[in-house]
Structures are given as structure tokens and as C-alpha cells.
Amino acid sequence: MGPFLETLIGGLMTGMLYSLVALGFVLIFKASGVFNFAQGAMVLFAALAMARFAVWLPEWLGFESQLLANVLAFGVAMLIMIGVAWIIERLVLGKLVNQEGVTLLMATLGIAYFLDGFGQTVFGNDIYKIDIGLPKDPIFLFESTFQGGILVNKEELYAALIAAALVAGLSLFFQKTATGRALRAVADDHQAAQSIGIPLARIWVIVWSVAGFVALVAGIIWGSKLGVQFSLSLVALKALPVVILGGLTSVPGAVIGGLIIGVGEKLSEAYIGPMVGGGIEIWFAYVLALAFLLVRPQGLFGEKIIDRV
Question: How confident is the model at residue 295, as a pLDDT?
Fold first, then answer.
């Protein structure tokens, strides 16, 4: 029972981190109807900004405090992501209002390649580390119940708690604030939202800024775990099955989808992997997503779209 619970808890914590990346996809799709292929590039770009400014600022300003460096670097990285959101709205989305979904999708693909290349130009292409003080040592729980206890990674535990708090805050933002309701109205119909006085440009800047903030937090957490490198953008690929499973329009769906995939891939690797030679963790999420596309394409919590003619 102990190893099972250990695997289960590890899967839940990993699933929360998947949910954090998937949340960026959901936010932008929920507010603009655009599937943002650039979310992975945004995670990488934000993490690079955080990692590099945490090193550059102490050199430029002449102080040694790592905590102060992290706080200032976070603020600078957040301002950069807001600037990216403003530029995207001015130069890309603002020119494509009411265009077909595939046009907007290709636009976000172009944004992704630009951010990847621009990030490499500005910040370099080495592997950088982010040290925000998350404890690395594991802890053992329920030692009196299970022999040897249950091993839990402290870093993943704290990261999962941060992700859960952020998801809860954004859920309240969408449901309880006037801006959140305006974001949902824009997603339903751009022209109708404009006709009742909702400023489309401002709404898009807000939602891309919020998605940039989510990307920054996700980039910091994943960068702390894996190091900041250009393969970090591939983490977003694991978020695609999460949003397919949970639904592109549902914030709670991103959470549930992430937990299902996190737990499913850990348990399948632990208990089925040895029988088939391993490797299940790599493809489990994508096979599960494919199965959902066949039987419930809108996901567990997504809205079913009905076109009337």
C-alpha cells in the first residue's frame, strides 16, 4: 500500500504542475477563442527572463541578496510579459479581429517561433538555473503506518500548493469579477462584446498579461526543477492532452485533467511499465487524449458546441 500511495501522491503533485501550464491555454481560449500555440514559448521566455535578470540585476545594482534579486527579477520578468502581451495585441491580434480560428491559430504559431528565437538572441542558449529557495530534500510521511514511510518530494509539494492557489485565484477572478465576465463575453462573440461597449483591445491585453503571469510562475517552477533550457517549451506539449481531457473552456477542467494525467502516467509506469519494458509515461497522456477525442471531443467539462443552420 505504501508504494502505491507514494506513486499516487507523486502523480497528483506532477498533475498540478501540468495543470498550471494547461491553465495558460484555457485562459486565452476562454477569453478570445484562440488556441494559443505560443504558451510553451511564453513559459520558456518568462523563465529565461527570470533566470537571467536574477543574475544581471545584482551585478548592475551592486548587491548580493539572492532574495532581493529574485523579487526584482520576478517584477522585471512580469513587466516584460505585460509588454509582450501589449505588442501581441497591437501587432497581431488587433489586426485579426473576427478572422477565422485557423488564422488566429497560425498567428500564435508564428508568435511561438518568434519568442523562441528572440529569447535565444537576448538571453542566450545555455542551461540556466532558478533558485527561489524551494527545499530539495525529500520528507517521509506516515512512518508509523507504513514501513519506511511514504517518500514525498518537498519541492514538488510546495510547487503543487503554489499551483493550486493560483488556479483557485484565477477561478474566482473569472467567476466573480466584472473583468472576468467581460473576458467570457469576448470569447463568445467579438462583435457582440464590442457592441455593448466592451473594449476588445484592453480585454485581450489583460488576458494575455494574465496568461503571461501564469507562464512566468510555471516557468519558475519547472525551471527550478529541470533548469531553464530550450527543451522547457516541450513541457507545454504535455499540457495539450490535459486541456483536451478537461475541456478548453474550463479552468476546473484544466485541474482535473492535469491530476488524471499526472496520476495515470505515474501509476501506469510503475505497475504496467515493468511488464512491457517501460516508456508508458512518455505516451500515456497522448493516447488518453486521443481516446477522449473519439468519444467526448469537448472534454470532461468543456462546452458542447452546436451549430444551427
Answer: 87
